[in-house]
Each structure stands twice: as C-alpha cells, then as structure tokens.
Amino acid sequence: MTSTGHVQNETGQPYVGLRAFRQQDRGLFFGREREAREIATLWQADRLTVLYGASGVGKTSLLHAGVLPFLGSDRVEVLPVGRIAPDPALLVTTSPVRSVYVLSLLSSWSAAPPAELADLTVRDYLDRRPARVDRYDDPVPTLISIDQAEEMFTGAPYRESDLEEFVAQLADALQAHTGLRLLLSMRQEYLASIVPFERVLGQGSRSWFHLLPFRREAALEATRRPLEGTDRRFGENAAELLVDDLQTVTIHSEQGEKTVLRVSGVEPVQLQVVCSALWESLPPDVHEITAEHVRLHANVDRFLAGFCQRMLKEVAERHDVPEGSIRSWLRRTFITEHGTRGTAYEGLHQTSGMPNAVVRSLEDCHILKAEYRAGARWYELQHDRLIAAIQHTDPETFLQAARTALSGAQWTHARELTEEAVRRAEFDDLGVRAEAEAIFGDVSVGTGDPETAWRRYDAAAEMFAVLQRADGVGRVLAAKGRLSLSLGDYSTAVSALSAAVARVPSDMSAQTALAQALWHVGQPRSALIVLNGALAVGGDALLDALALRGVILADLDQPVAALRDLDLVRQHQQPATLAARALALALAGRFDAAEQEAADAIANAGSNGPVLLRAARIRVILGNAVAGADLAARAIRADDPALPEHLREQARRLLPQPD
Fold first, then answer.
1. Vertex 327, ends 322 and 330: CA angle to 5°?
2. DSSP structural state of residue 348
3. Which of 149, 323, 620, 634 has the most C-beta neighbours closer than 10 Å?
4. Would you identify the CATH topology of the domain 303-391?
5. Full-model pTM
6. CA-to-CA separations, 511 to 387, 461, 515, 658, in angstroms, rounded
7. CA pseudo-torsion sign 279, 282, 286, 292
C-alpha cells in the first residue's frame, strides 16, 4: 500500500475525525496495511469476497483508502465503489424498473442520466464496457464492490422481488464474465442474511474477511504516522499514553464502586475522534506533542462525551425527539446498575420503548451496535468507553427534555428526567435545583396535588431570588397565580400574577392569566387594560388574549369590538367564546345567527356558569324571558366554573321578581 505521508485533509489537519476516509486520504490512512493487502488478494482471487465487521470498525475507510490504492491499474480494472440504497430522486425521475437496487448500483458506476440506465441489467452494463487486456493479451479481471451491502436487506423501499432480481442479475453477470470479481462490505449482524445467496454469487469461489478493531501497535501507527506531513510529532511515550487511555475503561456502579478494565482493541472511529480533537486543542506553537500535552489536552472521556453529545443532538433533530429523552433511554437501557453494558432486542416497531428509526440512527452514528442472536436483533453500546460518555451530560439537557414532557402531560417522565438532571448537577448548582423545583411543582399540578405544588413553587422562588433571577421568580409566581386561578382563589391569583407581570412584563401568558383573574374578581375594565397592553407587545398567547378580550367586551355590551376579536379566533372556539360571540351577535341585532350559535353553546355548556348566563341574556334579547330565567337559574347553580360574584348579581336580575 503506497502512501506519501505528506498530505492533510481539507480541514488542514491530519486526522479525518468522524467521517470515513476517502481514496484521496490514503496518505493519512495507517494501521491497516496487512488487512488491505489480504483483502486485495482475496478480491482478485475469488468470485465473491465478503468483508464484514461491526459498525464503526472502519470497513468503508479500509476499502477506499486502503484496498483501492493497493490495486495496480495495470493488473485489474476497478469500478467505483457501489452503493445500492436507492436515491429517492431515481424513483421519481425514471420509469418503473425491475429492481431499484440495480439502477442504484449502475448509477454509482456511471455518470449517465438514470433514464439511460433504467433498462440495463448489470450484465448489459458490463458487456458495453470495452474489454481490457494485459501486456500478454490476457483479459484483465474486473473488480466490483458494494459498500454497506446490508442495504440489500434494509433499504427503503425494500421489496423481496427487488432483492431476488438484483441477486439474479449479479449472478448472471458473474457467470457471463469469468474475470468478474465481487466484494460485499457489510455489517457483521447481517451475515446470516447473505448466506442464502453465497453459493449462487460465489459459484464455488468465495471468501470471508472479519475486520476487527485496531490492535495496540496498529493503533499507535494510526496515531503517529499521519503527522509525518506536518510540523508536529509525538514525543516519547505520548502516543502510547493516548492509546493506553483509549484501551482503559473505568466503570462506576450505582453504588459508587469503581472498576478499571483494559480492553484489547481500539475502535478506529474513537481514535479518529480523539486524535482530531487533540490536534485542534493544542496551542499553535506546539511542535512536539509530549506526554504532558496528552495529559492536559487529550481528555478522552471529555472528547467522547462531546462526540456523543453531537451525535445525539443530530439524531434528536432528525427524528424530533428530545435529546435528553434519548440520553435517558440509553442510560436506562444499555447501562446496568453495575455500570456495565446492557442489551436490548429490537421489537417490531420499538426497542425498549424507543422508535426503531431512532435506534437505527444511533447505530449509524456509532453509538450503538447490533448483532443477531437466536433470531432476534440485539443492541448494545458500541464500546465500553461510551458508558462514561453517555453518563456525562449537561443537566440542562434533561431539564429541557422534562419541559417537553410537561407540554405533553407526561408527568412521570417529566419527573424522572428532572430527577436525572438533579443527579447530574453539581451539589451547589442552585440554578439547576431551582429549575427542578419549578418543574416538580408543575408535575404536582398535573397530577392533582396542589399542596405539594405550592411548596415546590415556594422553594423555587426562594432559590431564584437568591440567584437574583427575576425571570425565574416571575415564572414561578405566574405558575402560582395560575394554580390559584384553577382553584378559584381569585384574589390570591391577582396578587401572584401582578407580581409575576411586574418581574417579567414580556410574558403574555401571565398577563392573560392576570386579566382572567381580574375579570373573576369583578374588575373587567382593569382586565381590558392588561389585555390591551399584552396584545400591543405580542407573544405566544395571542389567541388566548384575543379570545378573553372578546369575551369581556361582549359581557360589557360592546358587540362590535367583541366580534372583531372573536372573529379572529373563530377556528379555536370554546364554549365560553362561542357563547360570547352569540351574545355579541344578539346585541348587534343579528338574531338568526345569534340563536344558532347560542344553541351550539348551550349544547356544550355543561355546568359552565358564564356560558349559561350569556345564553340566558340572549334568550331575553330575543324576547323569551321565561327561557332566559330558566337558563339564569341554571347559571347560578353551575359550578364548572361557578359564576363570578359580579355576574351572579347580573343573573339574579334575569330571574322572575317577586310581586
């Protein structure tokens, strides 16, 4: 395997990091010369060669930067490395084909438009290529390869007929072209899937190669030699210290016990992540990387934790799942109470409660690995070193995931995530504890325990006050005000919400809640002033504020203004706003529309006092005082919610008066 040793990648550094090596990176690719030589020999000798290994062990890198440069163009003809995962664009821009796998493979070999390839078989394509001979006029073998060949069994859209047609075409091409050689590179857990096709593809000439993690000497070569083209080098024992660190795993059990293990192999993806991060973290004037530099800058656990955080963030964004939820699931599912790796099997749609699509993405980014056992697909962490990386995280990640769980009324999950955040925080991190107490208060409200919620909110407010966090105090006071509002303690609600708005005047939802509390205590005009101010600023509670202002304006006999607001929220009608709009229509003289909407409101009123009172007023306006009195009596008796006192007096005036 030839190498100049004097190249860098496009980032200006000699390590490629997380991505796979490409053929142009061959001058940076070390530690795999024996494997590259052996695979190149097998590929040229056998009809079928299967290269397999765990995810992240470096199969793609070895094929591109190791094996291909080893093959002399004068001895063999090598087609570009193929892929058979269908590009969605192929399925849209071409007419129906017998196998999308075939079209995908041909498209990876040729720059021709898909329409020109759609009718070709694998044999057709190879037949059209000019024959090559060596200097003795003997045919030159043609080498074809398919990377990530497990996509034959997992690609989308996967159809068994596509697979059968694809394998049949490969077999036909191998039969017709005696010098054709096929290499399949695939994940180890899919080996059982290729066995049924091994005989027809290999035709009596087949070999298997198991790619393992780096041994120590190979890892040292992959660490040191990429620096040959730079002005840096590793000093005495420095590279050894880095590799030793990668081979050393410290396990912490839930009981606080510590166990130190030494593993035999070094995962190539981890080596690249750590070396790349070390290169970036060194001061610019460092030319000899000493053991002390490695101790100071090559914090393997910190680098791997950063790697995990980046990967989990990508997966979370791709699947719209909270990052903290994924990390919490990884910790619960794949780290035992003894601090060792656990396993979980893949179900039809989920793996231990996580959607399989998310789990497959975690495998793709080298967080998990899979293997088949007893007919089932089992997952575990890619490496023991990831245990500490998964356990280490910013508590805010869990707090954010807990807030997301709260928004979905997942009370138990929100509590668990918040408890995890507290466990991850430093003992004296008052900010995390304050946020946690506020979330615990919200959970208590959701589970119907207002007394505990009140205590939690008080504790959170005190901590935020110590931290001089006015925004935190304001949020907690707003939560207390909403709790008081829901319990019917309107005076307390006004007090708490007024204090909250004073601290966080931009919180539109708190202002809307304050307006609602003011309306309940008989101060509708004060409520309008608050709502007018909130709506002038804007915010995420716009519809709620408009609806409440429309309701209050209807109650104050201002139908034109009320309808202006209520028409804007018509697609989000609740019984209260529906009844208020019906009242505004009646006050505006639009009686037919008012009667219809009043009927709808009454049908959904239940025991809602304000809704029943508005319906009673509509009946009186329409000239049916008896029906109005009946509805007013129901409104006085209603309790879900009960009439505020200022509306209760209004309802009494609609009742028959004694002689």
1. 130
2. S
3. 149
4. Arc Repressor Mutant, subunit A (1.10.10)
5. 0.54
6. 46, 19, 6, 42
7. negative
